[in-house]
Design goal:
With about 280 residues, the chain is an alpha/beta fold. The protein contains eight helices and seven strands, in the order E-H-E-H-E-E-H-E-H-E-E-H-H-H-H. It has a single domain (about 1-195, about 265-284), classed as Rossmann fold (3-Layer(aba) Sandwich). About 30% of the residues lie in helices and about 15% in strands. The longest helix is centred in the C-terminal third of the chain and has 16 residues, at about 270-284. The chain is globular and about 50 Å long.
């Protein structure tokens, strides 16, 4: 069974998506360590482990730079959503001059651990700043890479949440399942296929309705929450009225870390779809 090291783990959405994506291409894996620098996401991860949502694995609460690599087992997959602030359109876009820039640390760890696969996530602004350096560094480490911009709407969610995903396979990486990526080569690039759990076929082709058909199908499958301004759906809990005075009904201090974790979080279905699509491109 392959072993995964997860860094900048957040609340675990990328991990869940990677596990699902690996299963789709016939690879069984387990997470052997998670690295996260903030206490609230670590509490979420601990709860998820106790409830069986995530693999039972140690969580390193602290600076990624201080992770004791020599105490880790062999790592097959290295994954993480490294800090987006250097590239985000919402910030100053300082790039490599941003003190939160962790890519050089990740690169050194990849050289030391020598995994056979990497899977990263970041904001859409990374496409216009910084991604070329990341891809060059990965190529220098012997990885063949594919990347793309994917939205949550592609898997039926009522929001876009644009994210860049990067998949790299080491040159010595096996081809996995024989023939994967051989079918329907024309579906690469913009004509990305959507292979949701339990579907077994392309949702868009089956419904003949394109993205809207996929969205409606996924809403039934995953019971997505209704979008802003939309009627409440039968599966949703009753809505409550909140005071308009500074969120006083919930307490602002208790919401900041939660909102930040959700804002930075990765939708697992989106990550799984990105992984399967990019893996197919690399294995074709």
């Amino acid at each position: 069974m392959d072993q995964i090291l997860s860094v900048c783990t957040g609340i675990g959405g990328l991990d869940l998506g990677l596990h699902d994506g690996l299963r789709r291409v016939g690879i069984e894996a387990r997470t052997v360590c998670m690295v996260e620098g903030e206490a609230f996401p670590v509490a979420v991860l601990g709860k998820a482990i106790r409830e069986g949502w995530m693999d039972e694995a140690p969580i390193w609460l602290g600076d990624l730079r201080e992770l004791p690599l020599d105490e880790l087992p062999d790592i097959d997959w290295y994954t993480g959503g490294y800090p987006c602030q250097p590239w985000s359109q919402a910030g100053k876009r300082l790039g490599e001059d941003d003190p939160r820039h962790l890519w050089p640390i990740i690169l050194e760890q990849l050289k030391s651990l020598r995994p056979r696969g990497v899977f990263f996530e970041n904001v859409g602004g990374h496409l216009s700043l910084g991604i070329d350096r990341v891809l060059q560094d990965l190529a220098g480490c012997g990885f063949s890479c594919a990347f793309g911009l994917f939205t949550a709407a592609e898997v039926g969610a009522p929001h876009r949440r644009e994210r860049v995903f990067i998949l790299g396979l080491a040159d010595s990486h096996g081809r996995g399942l024989e023939g994967i990526g051989q079918e329907d080569d024309d579906d690469r690039g913009d004509e990305r296929r959507n292979d949701l759990d339990g579907c077994g076929e392309d949702v868009a082709d089956r419904n003949g309705e394109g993205l809207e058909g996929r969205r409606r199908f996924c809403e039934r499958t995953h019971q997505w929450p209704s979008g802003q301004g939309c009627p409440q759906r039968p599966h949703e809990p009753a809505r409550c009225v909140e005071s308009g005075l500074g969120r006083t009904s919930d307490g602002l201090p208790d919401r900041v870390d939660r909102l930040r974790a959700l804002g930075n979080g990765v939708l697992p279905q989106q990550a799984a779809h990105a992984f399967a699509t990019l893996y197919k491109e690399l294995e074709a």
